[in-house]
Write a structure and sequence with these properties.
The complex is a heterodimer of chains A (361) and B (341). Chain A has 361 residues and is of the alpha/beta class. Chain A folds into two domains: 3-120, NAD(P)-binding Rossmann-like Domain (Rossmann fold), CATH 3.40.50.720; 125-267 and 345-356, Dihydrodipicolinate Reductase, domain 2 (2-Layer Sandwich). Chain A has helices spanning 12-24, 37-47, 56-63, 77-86, 101-114, 128-138, 159-166, 178-188, 279-306, 314-329, 337-356, and strands spanning 3-8, 27-33, 51-53, 67-70, 90-93, 118-120, 145-153, 201-207, 224-230, 235-241, 249-255, 259-263, 268-272. In chain A, α5 packs antiparallel against α11 (337-356). In chain B, α8 runs antiparallel to α9. The two termini of chain B are 39 Å apart. Chain B has 341 residues and is an alpha/beta fold. In chain B, α4 links the parallel β4 (74-79) and β5 (114-118). Classes of the chains: A alpha/beta (361), B alpha/beta (341). Chains A and B meet through α1, α2 and α7 of A and α4 of B.
């Protein structure tokens, strides 16, 4: 059985959604919508979608979709998600879920009330390294997690960075926390699985490192962020950097037994163990053991490549598969509401601290 | 009255502003540029022509208000602004949506505004044209822009939009379709010559003629079109005389700018490779991008002839000969490489 799907918001990320939806087998996209009809038209024409709309209500009325993917700027997520749920749709909301936790809560409560399934686009949490990492932790290879390092590097010259800084009117600059708020979910949603706390202690610092060249509000967007979080049993560092090179993206979990490093760029997951051999021999052996870990991870990737499983949007595909399965089988959606809310609340607190801080070191 | 140049700090836009200065344009030339953009090219024009009546205006065509401001007191628009790269949504936004906003402002103005659009050769449906045929203004437009490339798709839709406005509002429009625009500070290598891949230059154009137009000649074509009453409602291809082949271009480039490791592929090999790449893209569910497909190959790397007689009929002549244009271009490329830029 396949579900009837519509996409609202025909910007850059909608391409990724369409590409994966067309591979899924359990979804058929019948229409796309953007309040700018030329944007809706271009997306429909590039992906062979039968119809496009500039009016969301008209789309809901005529298409009667089972699922709506909301890929508009977050400022409109609440209104669109609620409207779609009222028309009987399940809703996939892109990150950031909503500009504030109050909006996020309103969406989730509405879903609970009407029995609709909601997910958020935490795609990296479903990328192969994240999946492998969670498996290793579940097997007890790490022991008890003590500390998590979540690092998200960003390229201001990349396609998103260029679009965001191309215009002072870009919606990212309207978000509280601007560029940081648009990316912070990627940092925090890799910490929440290890930190069950509702309200960890949080210390955040953010600043602008690049040269201020625009003379408008784009210059104010922080491009570096450091956060320390401390829960009851687990602590964490979260780093966002637009300047560290190479652009890194990883999560590192320090456990009572071993430390595991999941790298989202190379898509390798490696376990750091201490040596069992004594003195200089032990120190010598560790290097080889580490090299072997890397080799094993790289070989695994090569095998995935050979099986055509080394896809750019692997995480998006997996998340969508799980989400659509939850709809078809009537099981809970893959991401618990509580985690969506915790990420949102922590993000609000972090951005709130930055708003009051000075840029001076 | 004033005239407006959009994309005025671009490669062609700045050359157009400079040519207008050199020709002693009497109207104020309003140069629209995006907020925060680097104005190096326009600054150089201004420095060379301190007495020219240039008016720099900050604005973004994706804003209807900025479009309305841009066309105030204007009786002629040269629309050269377009996205050359970026994600698909961004390219459509900055080229097609931007054009629609500009067109709305133009047709909403109290007086008629003459519009000259910089379109592109990329709008022609070359895959359906017989090898060796001459590309004219009558050559059919790309029927499958989605199979070609993003730039073609975007430019095709943009041009269609202008014709729609001409039909609906009687817009006094002329469309120019330049081939490959080249010149100092422009791009070094057209894809029609080949592509750099893993440190090797894949030479795919070989004996095909390159539809070059020197940036100043192309700017002159825009002016000729704007000044000719006969050009209203017409399309003109813009290519120079004495076109070199891709091989001649590459050989000169290697001699005068930098040596390159080159792998030269004949058309049948490029086609085979395209088929393999397209097959793998399909088979692997998009694990590697389909940078080559038979459709793209047939559009880009087959041999055609080019014709500029229609453009010459409104008085245009290429002021800079191709040999001299190449000499200037390669000298500038060599200098910028030498200075580490």
């Amino acid at each position: 059985m396949s579900l009837k799907v519509a996409i609202v918001g025909c910007g850059q990320i909608a391409d990724g959604h369409l590409e994966q939806l067309q591979k899924l087998g359990t979804a058929r996209v019948t229409a796309v919508c953007d309040r700018e009809p030329l944007m809706a038209e271009q997306l429909a024409s590039r992906y062979g979608i039968p119809r496009f709309y500039a009016d969301f209500d008209e789309l809901l009325e005529r298409e009667r979709p089972d699922v709506v993917h909301v890929t508009t700027p977050p400022q409109s997520h609440r209104a669109l998600a609620l409207r779609a749920m009222d028309c009987g749709c399940h809703v996939y909301v892109e990150k950031p879920f909503a500009p504030t936790t109050a909006d996020a809560r309103a969406i989730l409560e509405h879903a609970d009330k009407l029995g609709r399934k909601i997910t958020i686009g935490y795609t990296y949490a479903y990328d192969p390294p994240a999946v492998d990492l969670m498996e290793m932790v579940a097997k007890g290879l790490v022991g008890e997690p003590l500390h998590v390092e979540s690092f998200y590097g960003y390229d201001l010259q990349g396609s998103y960075g260029t679009a965001i800084f191309g215009k002072p009117g870009h919606w990212v600059h309207d978000l509280p926390g601007a560029l940081l708020r648009n990316n912070i979910d990627h940092l925090l949603n890799k910490i929440t699985p290890f930190m069950p706390d509702e309200r960890p202690a949080i210390q955040a610092m953010g600043w602008v490192r690049r040269e201020r060249r625009y003379g408008d509000r784009r210059d104010a967007a922080h491009d570096e962020l450091r956060v320390v979080l401390r829960g009851e049993k687990v602590s964490a560092y979260a780093t966002f950097s637009a300047h560290a090179r190479p652009v890194a993206h990883f999560v590192r979990v320090y456990g009572t037994k071993n430390t595991v490093h999941a790298d989202f760029v190379s898509r390798t997951v490696t376990l750091g163990r201490g040596s069992r051999l004594p003195s200089a021999i032990g120190r010598l052996a560790i290097g080889f053991a580490q090299a072997l870990e890397q080799l094993r991870a790289a070989t695994r990737n090569a095998a995935r490549f050979a099986r055509s499983e080394f896809q750019f949007f692997a995480g998006l595909e997996r998340l969508m598969t799980l989400y659509y399965r939850s709809i078809l089988e009537g099981t809970p959606p893959p991401i618990p509401h509580r985690d969506i809310l915790r990420v949102s609340e922590w993000a609000d607190r972090i951005i709130g601290q930055l708003a009051g801080s000075s840029d001076d070191p | 009255m004033k005239l407006l140049v959009t994309g005025s700090n671009g490669f062609l836009g700045a050359a157009l502003v400079r040519r207008l200065c050199e020709r002693g344009e009497r109207r104020v030339v309003r140069c629209l540029h995006r907020p925060g953009s680097d104005l190096g090219r326009l600054a150089a024009v201004r420095a060379a022509h301190p007495d020219a009546r240039l008016e720099l205006l900050v604005g973004d065509l994706t804003s209807p208000e900025d479009c309305a401001r841009a066309i105030e007191d204007v009786d002629l628009v040269y629309h050269g602004a377009a996205a050359l790269r970026g994600a698909a949504a961004d390219m459509f936004l900055n080229t097609v949506v931007a054009s629609r906003n500009l067109l709305e402002a133009v047709v909403g103005a109290a007086r008629p505004i003459r519009v000259v659009l910089v379109s592109s050769f990329a709008v022609y449906g070359m895959a359906g044209v017989a090898e060796g045929a001459t590309v004219t203004e009558e050559t059919p437009l790309e029927p499958h822009p989605e199979r070609r490339d993003l730039y073609s798709h975007v430019k095709r839709r943009q041009e269609q939009l202008f014709w729609e406005y001409r039909e609906r509002h009687g817009l006094p429009l002329t469309v120019l379709r330049p081939g490959v625009i080249y010149g100092p500070s422009g791009p070094a290598m057209s894809n029609r010559v080949g592509l750099s891949l893993f440190g090797v230059f894949l030479h795919l154009g070989r004996r095909n003629l390159l539809p070059l137009t020197y940036v100043d000649n192309c700017a002159d074509a825009l002016v000729a079109a704007a000044e000719s009453p006969a050009a209203v409602g017409e399309v003109y291809n813009v290519v120079d005389d004495d076109l070199p082949t891709a091989r001649q271009y590459l050989e000169r480039y290697r001699r005068e700018v930098e040596p390159q490791r080159v792998l030269s592929l004949p058309l049948f090999a490029t086609r085979l490779m395209s088929r393999a790449v397209a097959w793998y893209h399909q088979h692997s569910r998009g694990q590697l991008p389909a940078i080559f497909t038979p459709y793209k190959t047939d559009s880009m790397w087959r041999s055609f002839r080019y014709d500029n007689r229609k453009l010459k009929s409104i008085g245009w002549r290429p002021a800079v000969e191709t040999g001299e244009g190449l000499r200037r271009t390669f000298a500038s490329l060599r200098a910028s490489r030498g200075s580490g830029r």
